[in-house]
């Protein structure tokens, strides 16, 4: 009987979270809510944005009437930028934030972060990326030293698994069947760590010390 295997998927996604200047004092409290909501904080930094940097970050809002006030607000004090990771991080973080207008959020989503920490439409307490592509751009902006590669999806994800994951996993499962250990899960985990193809290879060079 042929078993149908599910399509391989990559679940981890990243998004940018920004604690805005007027609620930075609530940083620890907000971080605790983030962690209890199933996110992992991958990167974090506190920074002071200049009006020019705010204009670049919010370039898609340029030309709107509120834009000067937005740039002034975001550069009025330090902010906390975080890279959050979890399954469907972008959509889950947007859901946790609630509507962008904090007044509306208090009426329709009273338990959302913007309802709790925001003041109005402009001073809404926190920022979240709108899409995976905007998350990649915003993470590069806030963390330029971090190499952030696009998350594989669809055929790219299947190609990645077939090329980099499945061969090692198949070899490990084959070795497991031959060995038949008492604790197969632990044995396979140890085997995969030992045979990780991405494990760095250390080369020891013998150097001679020259005395002058």
TrEMBL record:
Residues 12-150 form the Nucleoside diphosphate kinase-like domain. Keywords: Cell projection, Cilium, Cytoplasm, Cytoskeleton, Developmental protein, Differentiation, Flagellum, Hydrolase, Kinase, Spermatogenesis, Transferase. It holds the Pfam family NDK. The keyword DNA-binding does not apply. Its main location: cytoplasm. It is found in: Cytoplasm, Cytoskeleton, Flagellum axoneme. Gene3D superfamilies: cAMP-dependent protein kinase regulatory subunit, dimerization-anchoring domain, Nucleoside diphosphate kinase-like domain. GO terms for molecular function: hydrolase activity; nucleoside diphosphate kinase activity. It comes from the Eukaryota. The keyword rRNA processing does not apply. One of its GO terms (cellular component) is cilium. CDD domains: DD_NDKH5-like, NDPk5. GO terms for biological process: cilium movement; CTP biosynthetic process; GTP biosynthetic process; negative regulation of oxidative stress-induced intrinsic apoptotic signaling pathway; spermatid development; UTP biosynthetic process. PANTHER family: NUCLEOSIDE DIPHOSPHATE KINASE (PTHR46161), NUCLEOSIDE DIPHOSPHATE KINASE HOMOLOG 5 (PTHR46161:SF1). Belongs to the NDK family. Component of the axonemal radial spoke complex 1 (RS1), at least composed of spoke head proteins RSPH1, RSPH3, RSPH9 and the cilia-specific component RSPH4A or sperm-specific component RSPH6A, spoke stalk proteins RSPH14, DNAJB13, DYDC1, ROPN1L and NME5, and the anchor protein IQUB. Interacts with IQUB. This is Nucleoside diphosphate kinase homolog 5. It comes from Odontophorus gujanensis.
